[in-house]
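Give me a protein, keeping tokens residue-aligned:
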Amino acid sequence: MNNKFKHILIGFAAGVFFVISLAGGAIIDRKIGFKFLDRFVGNSPSGSLSGVVENKILNEESVVTGAVEKAAPSVVTVGISKVQLSSDIFNFSPFDPFGIFNLQPKQEKVEQDIGSGFIVDSAAGLIVTNKHVVSDTTAKYRIIDKDNKVFEVKDIYRDPANDLAILRVEGLGQPAMELGDSDKLKVGQTAIAIGTALGEFRHTVTVGVISGLGRGISAGSVFEGSVERLDNVIQTDAAINPGNSGGPLLNSLGQVIGVSVAIAQQGQNIGFAIPINVVKDSLSNFHTTGEFERPYLGVRYQMLSKQAALLNEVPQGAYVREVIDGSPAQKAGIETGDIITYIDGQKLEEGQADVISLINKKKVGDEVEIKIWRQGEEKTLKIRLEKNS
């Protein structure tokens, strides 16, 4: 028997052995079940690698669906009810062919869903939303829960500094939302928004990531109009549509990490939310005093990064872009172009400590020591904080 023939026999025998081993292994796995193989082939009926992919997708989806199921009962819709004057020049009548009488103003009752909110205290009937959602002091507001039950808003407490409002209703049966910690947020983590999109589609869910932190914006929407400047807000690509204002922005645990507040009119997939820790401070102050009494400094500013400070040969801090007339800052002598470097001995640094976060820890009437840099000179000012009205 020559060597060539031997090699053929050996190859044939090896092939038969491999086929028998494979078939035997499959039979034994079906009869006995080797669990450790499941990590490679999954649990799908076909026993293929597609099972691994399917399981991974299901696990990722279950994180989102679990968070939504946990939070959804506590999300509400904010509606408005008011009487306004209108004239209908298009309603033709044979007794008034020229529409003369139709030009006379008529009273018309308007009811519309305009925003979103979420429950923070079920027993007390407290709901958080944006201040600009309930800015019309002549209108009446209502709350619609997930079961379409309607509640009349009894009281509204507005926070003028942070575009927040607390609504009080009676008879709430839904649980309060669990609040997270916005100081621990990281860019890239999951963000889930729930709200009444476009003032029509209740409990709409959108998913994305946190795409930026510490942003400054002017909040508003086509429903509610523009509001004041907000600083240190969360940026997300989870779709926040008009009508989402006041609704919760969630993490993957179903905890609220922010309050949806605005969309970028000039960009796509850019929305913003007020950090939930700002809401916690407001709620704590509200429970103590029964109102939103906030200390007020009165400057609009932009935080300077370390790189920007080095390039411009100035210290790092808050660059003052505007000083509000009659504010404590103006009374103390702060000017546009100043750089606030320290507040009560704490250095201002981008992403760590800014003006709003430090001032919000103070009380109305407190005196703070503020260091500013002006044209190469450092000055120290004493400022007594006032109530933001």
